[in-house]
Fold:
Amino acid sequence: MVRTVEEVRCADGWCLAVDVLVPEAPRAVALLGHAMMADRRTLDTGGDGLASHLERRGLAVVAADLRGHGASGPGAAAGGRWSYDDLVGADTRALLEFVARRFPGLRRGVVGHSLFGHVSLANAIRYPREAADALVLLSTNIWAPRWEPDLRMRLAKRAILETGLAIARTVGYLPARRMRMGSCDEALAFWEPMARWHRNNDWYADDGFSYLAHARRLQRPILALVGAGDRLLCRPVAARRFYAEVPAARLEVVGRATGLGYDPDHMELVTDQRSRPLWDRIADFIARG
Structure:
């Protein structure tokens, strides 16, 4: 296996850091992206996590830091500014183009954890001709009242979003590290639309394009895995409602009831070695569809 750190330049000039893992004879390639307030280190915990496992299963792997995260600075505290639309229309498009150039002829898959899950889904909905051959979405949904049946949880999610927005407006960004919410701060322009989505019960770009309204046209195969132990960020009951509006997606709630041996929470799908049987399934899904 060959592992290198490379750089992907977006159309607007922002540079993204990526780990590239290449087995001797790759059968497909997987583009991996991380959760909110995190970076690509979560995708290969201890150097022997999800990314390395997929490489051992014969996949070339490109694991990326989205802008403002990890080594793709500047971060929000250092003056970095970015929006959700930037992640969808600039970062994801540049990363997919990089994968296509770097590994021509190979079947392309996307593995998105949480944030990169819905960012890559939004990208595939808006730019279907550029989409990967298969999408794997881990712990992925959008917070909006239409998908959360429990009133108390709807109110809790609204409070989290609005409180975060108030803090971000005061500080200039969401100081996730100081708040001990994650390893990477988030930009104000990134946080603002998530609060709007919840208020307006929709999921859309800043120019008004509704990802929700166009989700049914997506034809790529999608495997969505949600941990049975996720109590807040991607609750199984909310995920079921979300993916009911994405017909191409096959949702599975994974845990003890499905033979996994434990009920993974939001992060454990990508960080816990007990999830290796799922990582095997991801490799096969990307390689064979």
Remarks:
- The first helix runs from residue 50 to 56.
- The mean pLDDT is 97.
- Residues 57 and 280 are 7 Å apart (CA to CA).
